[in-house]
């Protein structure tokens, strides 16, 4: 029996990296999956790859209209959802002295406001026994240079998750956090590491990780699948770090 048979899932940022790996895992386990991404072409290409159990919605999670359009789509097509994976996120590494108001606002709008209002808007449609998963980062706990704003955005959503875990208990909706360490996804390429410096960057990063390497998107997808499925039926309000031990090192 597949783990997510007859379930409907939403994955924000589902056309790249961790979200894409999770969307693939959810479809493979029998779910219908709606991915939310910013670019029409990327969303369409991903839906084609995922197959007929996938649908796409193009929109920016920082815009409330995106969540309202998602609610209409769910109402029209499914009537409700079982899994909401708030995974889309952005990271601008800047020393505190150099952070612009625009950089600050962009990160909070995507990583924090986008998560809060995304959950708020879909909440009436989440079925009893559903699962909400928020992608945070070990940066919320482990001090990483230039990550103050990003860390703040992620610490806030961890607090949301703890509040929601209790607030939603009577509907048996579980709320958990997934905190990746460095994972080999396109977000790393956007951190300003030049392609020629990439091997050195990876080697240096790997040295800071007890398991000695970057994580893979499928390793995060496995944890997301655990939190999405009934395998985690007694798990709520926790933060699962998938970081090769980096937080402890
Ligand atoms: P990625 O760049 O491959 O994927 C991020 C996805 O989010 C993309 O599809 C992007 O288009 C989407 N996105 C970003 N801003 C958006 C917006 N405003 N509206 C809609 N979609 C938006 O990177 P990833 O590594 O898969 O990142 C997924 C999550 O994991 C993010 O929340 C990120 O902060 C978190 N994370 C990643 C790492 C890592 O090392 N890769 C580490 C810790 C946490």
From TrEMBL:
The keyword Membrane does not apply. SUPFAM superfamilies: NAD(P)-binding Rossmann-fold domains. It comes from Microvirga lotononidis. Keywords: Oxidoreductase. It holds the Pfam family adh_short_C2. PROSITE patterns: ADH_SHORT. This is Short-chain alcohol dehydrogenase like protein. It comes from the Bacteria. Belongs to the short-chain dehydrogenases/reductases (SDR) family. CDD domains: SDR_c (cd05233). InterPro entries: NAD(P)-bd_dom_sf (IPR036291), Sc_DH/Rdtase_CS (IPR020904), SDR_DHRS6-like (IPR051122), SDR_fam (IPR002347). The keyword Oxidoreductase applies. PANTHER family: DIHYDROANTICAPSIN 7-DEHYDROGENASE (PTHR43477). One of its GO terms (molecular function) is oxidoreductase activity.
């Amino acid at each position: 029996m597949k783990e997510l048979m007859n379930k409907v899932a939403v994955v924000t940022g589902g056309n790249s990296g961790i979200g894409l790996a999770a969307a693939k895992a959810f479809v493979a386990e029998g779910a219908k999956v709606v991915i939310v991404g910013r670019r029409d072409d990327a969303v369409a290409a991903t839906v084609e790859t995922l197959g007929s159990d996938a649908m796409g919605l193009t929109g920016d999670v920082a815009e409330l209209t995106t969540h309202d359009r998602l609610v209409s789509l769910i109402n029209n097509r499914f009537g409700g959802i079982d899994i909401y994976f708030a995974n889309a996120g952005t990271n601008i590494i800047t020393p505190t002295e150099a952070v612009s108001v625009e950089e600050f606002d962009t990160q909070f709008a995507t990583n924090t406001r986008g998560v809060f209002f995304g959950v708020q808007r879909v909440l009436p449609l989440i079925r009893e026994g559903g699962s909400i998963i928020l992608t945070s980062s070990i940066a919320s706990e482990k001090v990483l240079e230039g990550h103050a704003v990003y860390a703040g955005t992620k610490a806030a959503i961890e607090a949301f998750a703890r509040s929601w875990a209790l607030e939603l208990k009577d509907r048996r909706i579980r709320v958990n956090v997934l905190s990746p360490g460095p994972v080999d996804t396109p977000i790393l390429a956007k951190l300003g590491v030049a392609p020629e410096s990439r091997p050195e960057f990876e080697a240096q990063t790997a040295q800071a990780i007890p398991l000695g390497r970057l994580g893979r998107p499928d390793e995060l997808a496995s944890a997301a699948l655990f939190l999405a499925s009934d395998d985690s039926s007694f798990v709520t309000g926790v933060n699962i770090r998938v970081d090769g031990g980096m937080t402890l090192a």
